[in-house]
Specification:
It comes from Thiobacillus sedimenti. InterPro entries: TM_pro_TauE-like, TSUP. Keywords: Cell membrane, Membrane, Transmembrane, Transmembrane helix, Transport. It is a single chain. Helix content is 80%, strand content 0%. It is an all-alpha fold and 254 residues long. Helix 8 (138-153) packs across helix 10 and helix 9 (158-166) crosses helix 10 (174-199).
Length: 254
């Protein structure tokens, strides 16, 4: 890996980390960069999971009080998340580059749509399920497992979909939602990473270069969050997601 590749990956990590800190959608920057420097698709996806892992994990230090309010729900939700993450990680380990690449346009499209319609999705979910009295019922547990599978396999847009799912448990406070979301996302990504590391899939050099940039971007994004209009950044992410979906669809199916 030469210096231009390192700079490209670190730069993509900075943009992705900043985007995640402000509005989400960092994978739309980091995953294509890993592919661009020649990392095979499965290894690029695994390396991207490592690069974005600290974002959710480090955020947990800010949500101790909020997590404590949902102590009764967390064991079932966390068990579903970890089981799903392990399943998704297993699927990723056993995916071939060819078949994973065929799924990439669809995964990017799914993540882009989730990001584009997240406000409507969260609003509908709150109206429909906010009367659950704080109890994580079977629909919330099952959906958490399904999202765990998705997150263990690809991860893009996971946080947005977890937020909508958690309203099934009657959580409507945004800080509590973010705290539980970060906990579940950390569990999903961590168990998936154990499998990916053990299988030797991760391209360590590119992954660490991207991770270093993402840490810097996350710190910068936290400071810029109040200065950059969130809607503006969301528009950039949605446009980038749509463009990448079209580009990879053309590459794979054109």
């Amino acid at each position: 890996m030469d210096l231009p590749h390192i700079l490209l990956l670190a730069g993509a990590g900075v943009l992705g980390g900043a985007a995640n800190a402000i509005a989400g959608g960092g994978t739309f920057f980091t995953f294509p960069a890993l592919l661009a420097v020649g990392v095979p698709p499965v290894a690029a996806n695994a390396s991207n999971s490592l690069a974005i892992w600290p974002g959710h994990a480090l955020a947990l230090f800010s949500y101790g009080e909020e997590l404590g309010r949902h102590r009764a729900n967390l064991p079932r939700l966390m068990a579903a998340a970890v089981a799903g993450g392990a399943t998704g990680g297993w699927l990723m380990v056993h995916s071939s580059d060819r078949y994973f690449m065929q799924a990439v346009p669809w995964l990017l499209l799914f993540a882009t749509l989730a990001f584009a319609f997240k406000d409507a999705m969260l609003s509908w979910s709150r109206r429909r399920f906010a009367a659950s009295h704080g109890r994580a019922g079977m629909p919330a547990v099952l959906l958490t497992f399904v999202l765990g599978v998705y997150g263990g396999y690809f991860n893009a847009g996971l946080g947005i979909m977890l937020l909508a799912t958690l309203t099934l448990a009657g959580i409507d406070d945004i800080h509590e939602l973010n705290g539980v979301k970060n906990l579940l996302a950390t569990g999903i990504t961590t168990v998936s990473l154990f499998l990916l590391v053990a299988s030797g899939v991760i391209a360590w050099g590119p992954a660490l270069a991207t991770l270093a940039g993402a840490v810097i971007g996350g710190l910068l994004g936290g400071r810029l969050a109040r200065r950059i209009p969130k809607r503006w950044l969301e528009g950039v992410v949605i446009g980038l997601g749509g463009l990448l979906t079209a580009v990879y669809a053309f590459k794979v199916y054109g």
